Predict the 3D structure of the following.
Amino acid sequence: MGLSPGDNEHPVASLRCKLCTTRSQWSCRHPTRGYLLRVVLAKPKRMPTLAQE
């Protein structure tokens, strides 16, 4: 989509691994977790300058 998080301060929802989904009292610390952010608050990605390329 070519977007960066922009003004999203907090995730709308978090995706958790299958093991932690069944145990709600645990906090998921696995690398498989992810966060859903609002698309309307996202900003377009910056274009790199010629020096960065």
Notes: The chain has one helix and four strands. The chain has a mean pLDDT of 79.
